[in-house]
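Hi U.,

Before I forget, here's the chain from the pilot set. I'm dumping it here mostly so it's searchable later in email.
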Amino acid sequence: MDGLFTWKSPASGPGAAATRRVAALVLILAAAACAGDQTGALTPVAVAVPPEAPRTTGGRERTGSDADHAKLVASFGGEYRAPAALKLVSEVTDRLVKATERPDETYAVTLLDAPAVNAFALPNGRLYVTRGLLALANDTSELAAVLAHEIAHVTLRHANARTEMALRSELVSKVVADVLKDPATGALLQDQSRFVLAKFSRSQEFEADQTGVRTLSRAGYDPFGAARFLTSLNRATALRAGSGLSSEPDLLATHPSTPERITQVTQAARRIGAPGLGTDDRTHYLAGIDGIAYGDNPADGLVRGRRFIHPRLGVTFEAPDGFALENTARAVLGTTPDGSRRLLFDAVETNPGQGLEDVLRATWNDAIETGSFENRMINGFPAVTAVSKGKEWFFRLAAVRVGTNTFRMIIAAKGASDPEAAFGRWLGSVAAVGPDEARRLRPARIQIVAAAPGDTAEVMGSRMAVGDRGTETFLVLNGLERGAALRPGQPYKLIVE
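Structure:
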């Protein structure tokens, strides 16, 4: 799942030792082109194992302190205050719980101030939904589909079952390695158990999907809402990747591929009846999310088209043409649609008196070309640039000091082509964010508007504050296919500043 950009200042940010890992950098750059949000259960491993063998507890345990809850909420950007939206989610949750096999259980709902599309339920009955998920859903039945899936994880005791299997796998490999004195076989069993656990986790997702669809129907919601939401999720993931295609699922992914889930939940809904069952309450839902924030929190940096602005760190830049930017928890990532060029911008920790050339050497493990270091001034800021060549990628590197903060900028080009021109334009766009601009920054928000006669997706897309992909974003955000006609008087979602 993708989270908020919560940079710390270089003095308290990620350690220099971690940033030396060039392999991690390559993985981060690669992930920029294929990362996608998923909804799923967050499974805390907090089970005490008796000496004789691990065993599953019988009922739902009310474990987890208020302090743990506060830490979890803080890791997702804090609690999001939106009374109308919270009331909507709480009402849907209550209605669903009454339709489950455990109608006596209670859930505490928390909205998270995160743009990522995510929801999860803990075994203790805490249910979390991000504002990013609320922005993507298009009606009450779609929201209910996600909540029913998460509630199913709790009612089916999936967290306990998953923990028990993990503990049993660990116990078997440990016995083989330590007791039978066969560490090689123990390691092999442990490695194999990773695949077994991943398969088991994916089977739980399918089970939660199936149970969730049945709960939807029993609660009076449209059971086809699950397929609609997963379709929107799949399209949003592809749009963010910039390729128009979804990435292939990781063999060890805990979730099945989204297209596979869509097929399964559609079949489950058809077993209940034909489309048109239940209610979707679209107008009521859109009224409940009207005005909620969309995208990044200004305090943690904002992406505006190809421009990135971080008021707290006082820095801004504009990516070269063709790059789509994503603001992640540790860095700003960028990629071209074909994935052949990628960029990374992050803050680095420095020691007192450490020069910028030393910063590059300390944070880059691959060989830097001899004689490629160059000291320069970029819009009044000291900077050092360098070149590094790998087997499959050509890298341009820079360390730039803006005020008391030091930033690293990297462009990677696949093959032997030198990205010097694009790198130069990107480097030249680095500037300070003044206090006046910082005060004026506001998060984008969802605005519900009625379509006027003659309005099209292209017209609505031109009003979207999302850079150069307004029409595509409008279609995905409203669950519309290209070429779909808008209905005059019907409400639709826009992103406005």
